[in-house]
């Protein structure tokens, strides 16, 4: 039994519990499908193992809370290959953990916790509410220096954000943390409500103005939201460093903000949409981001606008 309401709440918010619950539900679905398809039932060994692991999972969570490298003045911890085995089990295909592996260029976890503490402190200085969002939604920062991504997070291991070795400055790390925390917020909302109505239109592929990568409507929504969030964040960094406008952080933040705004202008100035009556694709020849690919129609309902207008509408407050 779980002793107290406080412990129950802490357990229900923990990423290891989220992973455990997802694995249990997947196994129940697999057994149900197996039983209905051949009438013989499915092997329940894996489910039994998961149920037996529940008590051990609680112990591991307690050990992590007591021993893991914690960000200064925060509940967020930094881990590497020592992530709970349940979280490791649901991480692929984002990343595949290999027993005993450790990147030759990796830094000690304690060092990364110190660096991430500085990044989180700076996030709080630039935008206190954003730091609160990070600490509310992120429990674990997983450091994976040999990963092929700069940063990553997925609904199936919500509460965990992964950081690779692609950040070249504290400001880059701030961006990665804010970026992935924004995804966490959308994951939380999507567990309570449907973000995108299902259907053929939802699976149409659209080109992201920032990278050229193709995404369906759900993926495009995530990207658009994240870049609005980052625009607001970098605008605050620019404002906070305005007294030292020649500083490296000010220059980097201003350049990053401009790049993001150019992409948002392209996304809101739709270059293709579909006429519901005829199903015909219509092209906007004014878009410089077409390249034969489709862009999401009127993202978030914004009217076509310039970078300057976006700066006024999205950034300035």
UniProtKB/TrEMBL annotation:
Stretches the record annotates as Disordered: 274-299
Biased composition (Basic and acidic residues): 275-293
InterPro entries, alphabetized: AKG_HExxH
NCBIfam families: mod_HExxH (TIGR04267)
Protein name, per record: HEXXH motif-containing putative peptide modification protein
Native source species: Actinomycetospora aurantiaca
């Amino acid at each position: 039994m779980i002793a107290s309401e406080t412990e129950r709440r802490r357990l229900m918010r923990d990423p290891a519990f989220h992973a455990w619950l997802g694995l249990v539900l997947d196994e129940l679905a697999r057994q149900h499908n197996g039983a209905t398809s051949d009438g013989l039932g499915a092997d329940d060994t894996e489910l039994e193992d998961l149920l037996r692991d529940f008590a051990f999972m609680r112990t591991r969570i307690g050990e992590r809370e007591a021993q893991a490298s914690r960000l200064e003045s925060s509940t967020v911890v930094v881990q590497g290959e020592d992530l709970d085995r349940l979280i490791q089990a649901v991480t692929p295909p984002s990343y595949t953990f290999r027993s005993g592996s450790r990147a030759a260029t990796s830094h000690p976890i304690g060092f990364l916790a110190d660096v991430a503490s500085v990044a989180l402190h700076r996030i709080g200085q630039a935008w206190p509410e954003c730091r609160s969002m990070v600490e509310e939604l992120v429990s674990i920062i997983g450091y994976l220096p040999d990963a092929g991504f700069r940063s990553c997070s997925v609904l199936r291991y919500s509460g965990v954000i992964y950081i690779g070795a692609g950040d070249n400055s504290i400001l880059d790390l701030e961006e990665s943390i804010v970026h992935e925390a924004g995804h966490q917020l959308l994951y939380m909302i999507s567990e309570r409500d449907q973000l995108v109505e299902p259907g053929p239109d939802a699976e149409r592929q659209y080109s992201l103005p920032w990278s050229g990568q193709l995404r369906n409507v759900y993926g495009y929504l995530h990207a658009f939201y994240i870049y609005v969030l980052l625009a607001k964040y970098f605008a605050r960094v620019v404002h906070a460093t305005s007294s030292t406008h020649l500083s490296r952080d000010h220059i980097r933040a201003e350049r990053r903000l401009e790049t993001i705004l150019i992409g948002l202008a392209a996304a809101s100035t739709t270059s293709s949409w579909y006429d519901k009556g005829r199903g015909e694709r219509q092209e906007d020849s004014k878009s410089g981001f077409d390249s034969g690919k489709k862009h999401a129609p009127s993202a978030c309902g914004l009217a076509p606008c310039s970078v300057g207008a976006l700066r006024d509408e999205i950034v300035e407050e």
